[in-house]
Each structure stands twice: as C-alpha cells, then as structure tokens.
C-alpha cells in the first residue's frame, strides 16, 4: 500500500483556500480533490494550503511574477492545484494524477506485442517488473504491468504506432540510472526498454565516427573504442550501466565535459522513432551539414518526451596515451576558483577534468565506500580538487602538470596534493569522487540537487543550506567545478517533509536569482517537472509545449515529465 | 645501513595488452608505462624501514633505456634518497640484471636488498634468487612481513608459500623479494615531488660495471592465448548431453 503524501502546494495568489476547493475542474488531468468524498484528503489538504500560502509569499520569481501571466492563467483555468499522488518517499515530486485519457492494457494488447516482439521480449513477470519500475535511488516507483524489449528500430516503430492508436502511455528506458525519476513509470505506463538493441553498426578509424544502437552500454563502447585508440567524449560514474541512447536523450554531461563539451556538439546524427511510429532517419555521419533545421538537437536532452532514440552516430576523440591525475587539497573555495583559472591558463588544452568535493563529501566517501583510502591522510582539508590532464607525450605532460602544481603550491593555492603514478592510483582517486553519490545513498535518504551557477556563487549556496538546516541534515557539495556545475546533496536519515520544505523552493529560488539552472545535467524528469519556470521564461516553455503537441499529440511519450503539467494540458 | 631497491619500468598493470602483428612481442609504443607494482611495494618497505630508524639511506636502481629515469623519478618522489640508472639498450634477462646488481652491490655495499618478487611483463621470478646466489647471501622471497633486528643483524621474514606461511630468520646482508600483501605503497605527494627534483640520479653503463650482457635466450614468437568462445544456451537436457558427449568429449 503506497503512502499518501502531499508534498508541496503550488498555489496561485489566492486569498482563501475555499476558492481552491470550489474550483475543482479537470483539465486534462483527472480527479483532483473532490468536494465530496474523502474528508481525510481534504483535512490534509487544508493543512498544506496554509503551508502553501506561506510558500506563495516567499515564492517570488522575477519571471513568474509578471501579473499579466497570472491573470491569463486564472482566467483560463481556475483549477485547484493541490493534488495528491501516491508515492512513497518521493521528495519534491510533482503531485500528479493519472491522466484518464490513457488506456489500460488488455489481453489484446499483450497478444499484439507478443506477435511483434516474440514471447520472450514481452515481460509481465513480477520480479523483473519490480526492478524496471524503480529508479536507481529507490525514490520513484511506478506500477507498470508490462515491459517490452524491442530488438530493432522496426519493432520500436510498431510498438509506438500501436500504443499511439490505443492511447497507451509509454516510458522509454535504457540503463535506468537517471536521478530525476525520468526513466521509470509514474503509473502504469508501458516500459519500452531498448537494452537489447546493443549493436555497434560501424566505426571509422580515420575520422573517429562511431555509429551504434541506443542500447549500447557506455563502458562497453569505451572498451571497444579503446581497442581502436579512441574514447567516448563523455564519462560518468554510471558508465557501467547507462546506455548511450539514454545519455543522449538526457544530454548527459560527466567528468570530461570541460574538455570535450556537450553532446549537442559531439552527436553527428541520430535515428529516432516518433510517437506515431514514424522513423526519423537523421543518422548522418558528417561533421558539417547545414541543410535545413538541425532537428536532432531537439531529441538530445528532451528526455524521451519527443521520441525514442534508436541509433546514434557520435564523433569520438582519439585516446591520448598520457593521462595524469592529481588529487589536491585547498584551503577554501576561493583558492579552488583561482586554481581553476590558473589551470585553464597554464595547462590549457591538456586539461581534461576539473572536479571538486568538500570536506563533508570526502568524509562520507571514506566512511561508506569499501576499499578507498585517503590520498592525503595527514589531515582533513576543507576542499579537495581533482585535476586530470590528457596529452600525447608522457614525460612532457607529467612535467607540465607537476610544474604547474608546484607553482600553485608555492603560491598558496594548494595546501597539499598527490600525483597518481600509475593507472591504479588514478582509478582509486576517481573512485573517491565518483563514489560520493553511492556513499550518499548508503548513508540514508538523499535530497539531490544539480545546479548550474556562476563559479563564484557555487559554494555560497552550500554554506547557506548548512545554516538553514543546521543539525537536522548533512549538506554536502561537490561537482564539476570546471563547468560551474554544483551537485548539492542533503543527507538525512529518512525522507522528511519538514526538511524538504526548508530546502525547496529555497534552492530553486536562490539559483534562479543568480540566473542559474535548476538542472545542469541531470535533466528534469519527474522531480522537477513543475519547476522549469525557475530557469526558463514562460514564452519558451509555451513553445516547448507546442513542439511537444506537434510531435506527440496524444502525449503518450514519457508523460507527467519534463514540461509542467499546466502547460501541457493547455497547449 | 643502506638499502638498495631495484625498480623495473613495465607496461602499466591496468593497460590492455596487445600483441604486435608480427608476433615478435607486445605492443609497447604509445602505451602507458609505470613502475612494476611489486617494485613499488619493495620501495615502500625500504622507506618504512628507513623511517623506523633502522636504515640510513635508500638507493633506487633501474636498468634500461633513457626512459627508466621516469621510473627513478617516481621512486625519488616516493622518498628514495638517490638513484642509479644503468643505461643500456640491450634486452635484459634476469641473469644479466642479477650480475649488474651484484656489481653495484660491490660498490655501494648495502646491508639489505629488496626487490619485487617478479615483473608483471615477464613473470620470471628469478632475479632476486639469482642475485642471492651470486652474492652468496641469504634470501627471503615472497615476503609478506619483514621485521628487522638491528643489534642481532637479522631479518625475520614471513614468506607466502603454497602451504601457508613460512617464517625465516636471515642474517644480514640479505636479499628479500616482496609479495603483494607486504604493504600498501604510498602516493607521491607534491612536497616530495618537489624534493625529488634536487636528488641525484647517477648514470652508469654495463661496461663501467665490467659486466657483459649476453642473452642465452631468444624470443621466437609471442601469441595471444586462444580466445574463449561464447557460451551457448541449450534448450533441453538432451541437447546438453549431446553437446557434452559429442562436442566437449567429457562424457
């Protein structure tokens, strides 16, 4: 029995809660709180209305504050906004109700799928569904009754065409390593897992262009490329399980973003299947192609809401033999920033990663991970930085890095540090930084935030959160300092709405005030579906909704996610 | 007492090895090279002995072409006091290495020699033993624990052998070769890297040491082991029995 929880109310500027209840009209989304009916829900609702009202006062956002917008809003749909959603341990999840326009699966559907995919690839087995329904953090759990495993683009196309005609909602799924609940069903959506489509179609050794299917695991691609002398332009902690289709659909960032840039630049082409089964072949392998609108960019980062990516073609950089990694300790955040500036200038083109973690993340990693040892055991420092360089000449690069580090140390930017002497040592340093999310998961419940902020402001947020939460939670900050990307995590023994109320929407407002992004690389998924306004203007969001309506009129692809519910139902 | 440690520059342990197309050897160009892990452990042990006050100096030695200096720099960065580079471009086999080390021992006169038990590229596991034979010194190989007694001038060494652990008591000077569980090598810290820049690396040649390098062995061919075939999922017990009988010939 799932727990009922009301998380936070997104209230408009109303004065009385009564008006809320009275205007329970459904617009695309069904069953809001009924006037008659469960008094219990109502009772709970009232409490949160009060809470929500406070929210409204504090929730002043420059973009949303345009009264004009609100008025249009009120005029159009005065529907009550406090909804209830059954979800255990959800934090910050939008409170959603199942869209009644979606059908439920019946035996004819199962028969059809079995005919198209074969018996083995239509899964209704409870245990397998259990894993497919839950996300990596164990935070989001759907209740899908059907998992499909297509083996080719053609099968994906047939599945989607059928689902579209039957109004069956679909969740595209790959490695299921996402952190915002975007890869698992919210209710009983059909899960379409492309993991069986894992062939490498071709690789051009001269240009480094790789063409493969969306279900290829990132680490496998990296090994394959490694044999050819190349590597994938992205590298993340989840590489052992995440699939390239998912990486592209979420525009994954990772550790080498500072060197190789975004997938928007590295992906040369892709093949996607639209909601109605149309196969869009944009699988070019050309570096330059200025013919018409570059539609593939829409699919990169749209989190499966515009189409299912089935094949990709990506430009891979050559694997340079000389890789050096240093694990450093800095006195304060200001030194970390200056170090970044110096690294950019002095190390230049060989800089391939610049990461930081604070004292608390280091502590968590050392406590909860097995087989890790502190590279700088003599004392605990406030900030740790990892700098990686990748170049062609072994001795030259090592000397360059060491010279830079020694000068930084003399200048007081670094307090202490170690340089990895072989690949094993380098892996153990990376294990610490890449293992922080795992350590956090083991420590208990985590509220996870992924924010893009101006570099000088990044750590200020962590310090403010510490003051706000005081003893009730452990706040850690780490992330891709080189890209201005902070991973703010609040570790608590158990999910607690009171603590959540202290975190959200403060974190989003803080970020928004500095024109940052509330999701640097993790995406929106379900977690931040109604929060997009903190980082995007209403006009932009409206246009996004129009595009969604154009490509997926029935809204079957990954519903309830990415775009705010009120916008989607309007468009 | 001086401790001498021999370090070998090998292909990094984590690199995927590829055989050269002409089967003459393993691909070593453009491949990451590092210190042999067992040599790292040997150096770490020597440093610990020095830090406990039982030795005065740790000397690192490496033999081979000019790039060996990188390995010696790492050794110095870990904490060795000085280094000796035996410069030669000929292929070195364990007996040649042992002879060269013997010549160095005659000059430097260390009280203890610590080597890695084997190199991860050739897996010979011979140099330490041959060296002890040439010097007529006692040897404690596959050491998983070393305890020195300065007054009695003995080293108590726990050896990892097939049957378990064997404890030997060796009179110094002695040769010890290290096994994996002896210690966990330290990282090269920046302050130490800085200090290493001013440490001395002396270069000598085999001719100066009056050692003739001749190899009695010639590598004929290097091939990869046969690739494992993918597993097959059988659909019934009968098929399994059929395969075991007719294909694998095990029943």
TrEMBL record, chain A:
It is found in: Mitochondrion. Its cofactor is FAD. It is an enzyme of class 1 (oxidoreductase). Its main location: mitochondrion. Its EC number is 1.1.99.39. Keywords: FAD, Flavoprotein, Metal-binding, Mitochondrion, Oxidoreductase, Transit peptide, Zinc. One of its GO terms (molecular function) is (R)-2-hydroxyglutarate dehydrogenase activity. Residues 140-319 form the FAD-binding PCMH-type domain. GO terms for cellular component: mitochondrion. One of its GO terms (biological process) is malate metabolic process. It catalyses: (R)-malate + A = oxaloacetate + AH2; (R)-2-hydroxyglutarate + A = 2-oxoglutarate + AH2. Transmembrane segments: none annotated. Catalyzes the oxidation of D-2-hydroxyglutarate (D-2-HG) to alpha-ketoglutarate. Also catalyzes the oxidation of other D-2-hydroxyacids, such as D-malate (D-MAL) and D-lactate (D-LAC). Exhibits high activities towards D-2-HG and D-MAL but a very weak activity towards D-LAC. Belongs to the FAD-binding oxidoreductase/transferase type 4 family. This is D-2-hydroxyglutarate dehydrogenase, mitochondrial. It comes from Protea cynaroides.
UniProtKB/TrEMBL annotation, chain B:
GO terms for cellular component: mitochondrial matrix. Keywords: Electron transport, Mitochondrion, Transport. It comes from the Eukaryota. Its main location: mitochondrion. Gene3D superfamilies: HUPs (3.40.50.620). One of its GO terms (biological process) is fatty acid beta-oxidation using acyl-CoA dehydrogenase. Heterodimer of an alpha and a beta subunit. The electron transfer flavoprotein serves as a specific electron acceptor for several dehydrogenases, including five acyl-CoA dehydrogenases, glutaryl-CoA and sarcosine dehydrogenase. It transfers the electrons to the main mitochondrial respiratory chain via ETF-ubiquinone oxidoreductase (ETF dehydrogenase). This is Electron transfer flavoprotein subunit beta.
